[in-house]
Amino acid sequence: MFTSMTGNDEAIADILFRIFNDNCVQADVSRIEDTDYACITNHDVLVVVSYTYEDGEVPRPAYDFYEWLEHEKLSSLTFGVCGSGDTFYEDFCTAVDNFDSRLENTGAIRGADPVKVELYPEAEDEQRLGNFVLSILNTKKGHDENQNV
After folding, report:
1. DSSP conformation letters of 75-128
2. Domain assignment of residue 38, yes or no
3. How far apart are CA 28 and CA 72, in angstroms?
4. Per-residue pLDDT at 149
5. What is the pLDDT of residue 144?
6. What are phi and psi of 74, to 5 degrees?
7. How far apart are CA 51 and CA 3, in angstroms?
8. Beta strands in 12-64 (DSSP E)
9. Average per-residue pLDDT for the chain
């Protein structure tokens, strides 16, 4: 799920989609504001991609989802969060941190440390995003194996 104002976060979502598919994992991509949140429980993995708005806030198109998460229990979900920002601003990518904390508070399993991208994703960011996806997949696999013991 992503939200994007400048296209940077949509580009990140597209890269993640490609990487998941390259790893033989079927992925769906949707804008946060167009997603039926209840459908999240039908998935094993959730990746949230978000920019930070104004003074370090979760952007308006993603705010309802952010609020929805406050009351959810998603202990069977493995998650990761990433997003773009501009280090010129003091509140660089704080929405990424906010979503990461909120998802952790749902009981979901953090599959990877958050990834913060400076503006538009470059080649080195694609490498970090690849590692991010692999970490999520490995965490999910490890969790599934532990559940079957």
Report:
1. TT-EEEEEEEE-TTSTTTTHHHHHHHHHHHHTTPEE-S--EEEESS--HHHHHH
2. yes
3. 21
4. 41
5. 67
6. -125, 45
7. 7
8. 45-49
9. 94
Question: Residue 149's beta-bridge partner residues?
Answer: none
The answer to whether the beta carbons of residues 72 and 105 sit under 8 Å apart is no
Q: How far is it, in rounded angstroms, from Cα 129 to Cα 117?
A: 9
Q: Tell me the one-letter amino acid at 72.
A: E
DSSP string, 55-87: TTBPPHHHHHHHHHHTT---TT-EEEEEEEE-T
Per-residue pLDDT tens over the stretch 80-134: 999 999 999 999 999 999 999 999 999 999 999 999 999 999 999 999 999 999 9
81 is a domain residue: yes
- Gap between the Cα atoms of 38 and 58, Å rounded: 20
Domain residue limits at 142? 8-147
> Which residues 6+ apart lie within 8 Å of 116 measured at CB?
82, 83, 84, 85, 92, 93, 96
Residue 118, both tokens:
């400076």
- Domain of 110: which CATH number? 3.40.50.360
Q: Cα separation of 103 and 57, whole Å?
A: 16
pLDDT at 145: 66
